[in-house]
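call fold(seq) -> tokens
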Amino acid sequence: MKVLGEIAIIGGGCYGAFYSGQLETARDKGALRYRRLLLIDRDPHCKVAQLPPDPDRELVCQAWGDFLDGWFKPQLRDRDGLMDMIVPSPFMPHLMAEWLVREGGRRWPTRRVARVKAETPFGTPYDQLHGDGVRYVSHADWLCPTHCIEPQICPAIHAPRTWEMGETVERWTAEHACTRPTAGPALFTCQHVTHGVGMYPARRAFEGLAALATLAESPEGGDLVVASVSSCHGAVGLLRVEPGTP
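ret:
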């Protein structure tokens, strides 16, 4: 049995309702134990609000960024040795990069920390720079099955999966480091845990913050690569710390 702390599910719509249902099923079958499920949505009438009550589930009516600002406190994460986890939505913005920008501004007010465009292509089958400066990439050039857990044998092509997006981001980061000071990548890797639900540890946020600190405490600054990925897909952003006095 897997034992976790709090599990924050981003979004209270159809995906959030599905994920919470799967995790509650895993709990009831003895495959998973957790402190509680937190469903994050601004809409108090979202789909999760219409589910039958569950003593271990709570709907948190907040904007996603506001929730993370309050939830990401080092002294509150991984209490009692239990890892707190995040279940991302397929359609959320690059929340981890946004949080790092806000937290960087709070911790290093004399340094400018901002998102810049991830200009350099990856060369993967799907590779698009979005208007928000985030580069969205995928090793798949086919339509993936809904809620795919990305097993070693790809269910779309019925052949071994020979790629890992985290490794692709690491190579891209090394190439970026050839042109300017670079830290990271800060990888938020979503992996299957149980019953079709993927998640990543909340402590990855503080690991990303530590990488950002190496730039903020250096006079020349530099870029931090921040990537939210699974085995096949990813959203890659660049945070730039401008030169200045630490």
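The chain is about 25% helix and 30% strand.
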